[in-house]
Amino acid sequence: MTIPSRTRVAIVGAGPAGLVLSCLLHRAGIDTVVLEARSRAHVAARVRAGVLEQGTVDVLTELGAGARLAREAMRHDGFELRVDGERHRVPVRALTGRPLTFYGQQEVVKDLIELRQATGAPLVFEAPVEEIADPTGEPVVRYRHAGGTGELRCEVVVACDGFHGVGRSTVPAGVLSTVERRFPLAWLGVLAAVAPSSDVAVYAAHQDGFAMLSMRSPRLTRLYVQCRPDDRVEDWPDGRIWAALHRRLATDGWALQEGPIVERSVTPLRAFVAAPMQFGNLYLAGDAAHIVPPPGAKGLNLAVRDVVVLAERLTAALTGRDPAAVDDYTDTCLRHVWRAQQFACWLTRLLHVPPNADPFDRSLQRAELRALLSSHRAVQLLAEQHAGCPPDRAGGAVRTEGAPAA
Description:
alpha+beta; FAD/NAD(P)-binding domain; D-Amino Acid Oxidase, Chain A, domain 2; 26% strand
């Protein structure tokens, strides 16, 4: 593929955020180039998030990336919360009108890559970006590709390149402020080649620590066990993993089915927010700007929400309809980012056993859980926060000025 030397919007990163944004802007008639540091095979194989809010499903569907999702996704009416073996069902669909959709992030990425490539617009893999120059003027994106170097001039750069990408580091320290909370907790996540043992996801609060059963397909189960942030995957052989899961998920009349573990990783739990999410003609989206703890499954959905907001504002600005439309991008996004942080951090505190917790603190935690589950209004709020709100938009899920109606 010949890489253009100039485009209107350069997008760094071909994860869900970058790909959704590229498709939204293409619909609006705005030229983009997407540069991704990794290979297509690597990007399409990364097992990350797997729970899609209905708003995210709607965006993918209206873009034209929802056909396989509609056929293969697993849709659940709610989830189960277990407290020391007691089972409590949270009927999300009945309380909110919205289901929970399980469809792996890697599958979302595959669908979006196909959609992007069908347009013929540039999507370049194995092109790591080394520098974003002059972000307050006419930005220049400098990258490596096929043994050489290149420059891409543009009007706008959008960094969807993750927490460790070059995008956020381009914003000067005197401009960017960050806040962070590191929890003394981590998740050991495993992918097991076995059918899910439950018809819904299960969150388990246990005296030994948190555990979770989720799913990626009818044949793949995603499982999590609370562990220490300094644990290594080598510290958790198969036998120890299954023993912890059996103990923490145990309940009467139910059995956990084991299968070959095909992937495992340790993820420390943290919350992070950077602001502003814009600097001159550089914009941050998704993990480049914020990380939420994994309880609540908000990361991918937040990234999609960011770029829906940004696509509308960039379209208005770049078409001349409203040059100042992008000015409120940060403020608009931070409202939904902090809603998600509040929910995810609250769930983290409520469901995990902190190191060296004393009996008083553990009893308070259990009392809070039982008070929550005994209140219809509290369960309603839990269901609403879990299901998520539709992405901020005007005139339709992904309608942008100049774009045809879905």
